[in-house]
Design brief:
alpha/beta, 322 residues
């Protein structure tokens, strides 16, 4: 086996490069995976690129197979799909998903990979980590039949949440974003769209995923009496102000954090991390999720691509082809 691979690494805040890394010799319980595709998680990965992970969160923010420490050098990422070159007979030659950084080949424990279902294209399976986050958020949110729901923030996670909510009987789902281009994505997902000023109020539930202070404030404004905001945004080293005046107390409103690092308490007793990931992969058989990939780049261009994304290039998911 070739004992070297290429990986994308943040060398220091603001600067990344493709570097050669050593691939360990696989053990009896390991698999060797040749990466076919990965995806960029804009929010978290760009936060890592700019050095925005606060020291108090270095441990919490570690990716499963991260190499190095924040702020850098660090190899970071968690949306990879590849073919198993070596491992158990039932996995050899199969596409698997793994929470692994951008790297051409890697060795991980067999338990760390999830087989991609036959009816899910490998190009779409890179979204499994994003859909897993959305699944956990909705376990936390517990939406009900007929609910009036706003999803504020039309990034990858917000769109994944909206896609999962759309088929619920009787629900009104509105994707709320400042970018009018998100209207086309909302239409592809089967949900409504509104700019923040035009969004419908009186919501039973708001899922906030814009990672902006203005988005959180608008989320609270959209709630009806005793409504709840499920906060999915990761702010890093920023400290957004939370408007707890005006209607917050009279309306008995609530804000609750949701984070994929732990299985929702509503499912913890019965679901494992592997169960949750397998569910996310099954859900990706739905063609609507294709709308979440808006750009495809080659692995070798990742340093330039990440710099460009950090500068504010619009779009949603970026798939990396190897």
């Amino acid at each position: 086996m070739d004992r070297t691979a290429l990986a994308y690494r943040v060398l220091e805040p603001g600067h990344g490069a493709v570097v050669e890394v050593e691939v360990p010799e696989p053990g009896p319980d390991d698999v060797v995976v040749r990466t076919r595709h990965s995806a960029v998680s804009r929010g978290t990965e760009l936060l890592v690129l700019r050095g925005g992970v606060p020291p108090s969160q270095y441990g919490v923010m570690r990716a499963p197979f991260q190499v190095g420490e924040f702020p850098g050098p660090v190899t970071y990422g968690y949306l990879a799909v590849g073919a198993v070159e070596q491992g158990p007979a039932e996995l050899r030659g199969r596409d698997v998903f793994c929470l692994h950084p951008h790297q051409t080949r890697f060795v991980v424990p067999t338990s760390a990979v999830s087989p991609v279902p036959d009816d899910v294209p490998a190009t779409r399976a890179v979204l499994a980590g994003t859909v897993e986050t959305a699944v956990n958020a909705l376990w936390d949110a517990a939406p009900r039949v007929g609910d009036r729901i706003a999803v504020v923030g039309g990034g990858m996670v917000g769109c994944a949440v909206a896609a999962l909510l759309a088929p619920m009987p009787g629900v009104r789902v509105e994707l709320v974003d400042v970018d009018p281009a998100r209207a086309a994505v909302a239409d592809a997902l089967g949900v409504g769209f509104a700019r923040p000023d035009d969004a419908a109020g009186g919501c039973d539930l708001v899922v906030h995923a814009s990672a902006t202070e203005a988005g959180l404030a608008r989320s609270l404004e959209l709630l009806g009496v005793e409504g709840e905001v499920i906060e999915l945004s990761w702010y890093g080293d920023r400290a957004p102000r939370v408007p707890l005046g005006e209607g917050f107390h009279p309306g008995r409103l609530a804000i609750r954090g949701s984070q994929v690092g732990r299985v929702s308490p509503a499912r913890q007793a019965r679901w494992t991390y592997a169960d949750r990931m397998a569910l996310a992969l099954r859900l990706l058989a739905d063609d609507r999720f294709e709308a979440l990939i808006t750009e495809v780049v080659a692995f070798g261009t990742l340093p330039e691509t990440m710099t460009r994304l950090a500068a504010g290039t619009p779009g949603l998911g970026v798939r990396v082809d190897y």
